[in-house]
Design goal:
Its main location: other. By secondary structure, this protein is α+β, with helices and mostly antiparallel strands. The protein is built from seven helices and ten strands. The protein folds into two domains: 108 residues, Killer Toxin P4, Chain A; 101 residues, Gnk2 domain, C-X8-C-X2-C motif (Killer Toxin P4, Chain A). Bound molecules: 2-acetamido-2-deoxy-beta-D-glucopyranose (NAG) (2 copies).
Length: 291
């Protein structure tokens, strides 16, 4: 009778110990649970800093607020906030990926604005690209101006010379080139492609930008299993079946640090709670044995 009871007790203890371990093991998956739309791709800031509590700062704050508000009803918009003096003018825009719903666009822009504010603390200008949206602001106007400089590029590992795979890749890129509109998707077999222009470009400028991005993608990424080419005002990405994830997921690992911290704290709290339950349980068991 006593032996049977001890056995049940140790089984329960083991179960508790296991759930405790599982909570800790689940921390990494917790941290990557942010949706792929919101994960970080790249960011950059202007060198010059503005004066804290200046008119520029308050204009910048109203610009950023306008971007976030606008993203609830439009996938692209631009704003110019005029100050009392010309040097206080701030220009800004955002662009959501064409397939995002309005709520997702709004969430994405809100995150991008928060992140760019942290990354570019007191900088006159900043730009940040998440998987699902792009935001940029500056004190010099860039609205409606073409920009084909390479801002960020990433090539996956080479798949080696595979004529079929590369043929499909080239066909997908060609398809993106001949399609129309600011948001383009295509696929062939295991190859997926995506192109997006910023909404301030005309149809002709968008086309021009995408042709440039596709050319750079082919020449720079060669036979890579995926490629990302972000120019100033447009980007093109492709992914083959050889890539570990689709192009929408590459940068998940570099997702929001704040979220990771939050997830770790939640994990630790759960762990601590379990330790307390476990200890209370042990005490109770030993207490019972002591009787
Ligand atoms: C932007 O701000 C910086 C720093 O205040 C200044 O040096 C630069 O001239 C400004 N540019 C324009 C176009 O106003
Ligand atoms: C900026 O926004 C205004 C008002 O929404 C619009 O009329 C204008 O065409 C936009 N400019 C660019 C360059 O997109």
């Amino acid at each position: 009778m006593a032996a049977a009871k001890t056995k049940t007790t140790s089984t329960t203890s083991l179960l508790l110990l296991f759930s405790f371990i599982i909570v800790f093991l689940s921390i990494p998956s917790f941290s990557s649970s942010s949706s792929s739309t919101d994960s970080f791709v790249f960011g950059g800031c202007a060198q010059q800093k503005y004066t804290p509590s200046s008119a520029y700062e308050s204009n910048l704050n109203s610009l950023l607020t306008s971007l976030v508000n606008s993203a609830t009803y439009s996938s692209y918009n631009n704003f110019t906030i005029m100050g009392s003096s010309p040097q206080d003018v701030v220009y800004g825009l955002y662009q959501c990926r064409g397939d995002l719903s309005m709520p997702d666009c709004a969430t994405c822009v809100a995150r991008a604005v928060t992140q760019v504010g942290g990354l570019c603390y007191q900088a006159c200008g900043g730009a940040l690209q998440l998987q699902g949206c792009y935001v940029k602001y500056d004190n010099a106007t860039f609205l409606g101006v073409e920009d084909k400089t390479v801002v960020f590029k990433k090539c996956g590992p080479s798949v080696g010379y595979e004529p079929d795979a590369m043929g499909r890749r080239d066909a997908v890129l060609q398809g993106l080139m001949t399609a129309s509109g600011p948001y383009r998707v295509g696929g062939a077999g295991d190859v997926q492609g995506l192109a997006q222009c910023v909404g301030d470009l005309s149809a002709g400028e968008c086309q021009d930008c995408l042709v440039q991005a596709i050319g750079r993608l082919k020449s720079d990424c060669g036979t890579a299993d995926y490629g990302d080419m972000f120019l100033g005002k447009c980007y093109v990405r492709y992914s083959t079946g050889k890539a570990p994830n689709s192009y929408k997921d590459h940068s998940d690992k570099s997702s929001n640090e704040g979220e990771k911290t939050f997830a770790i704290i939640v994990g630790l709290l759960a762990g601590v709670a379990l330790i307390i339950i476990f200890l209370t349980f042990i005490r109770k068991v030993f207490g019972e044995h002591g009787k």
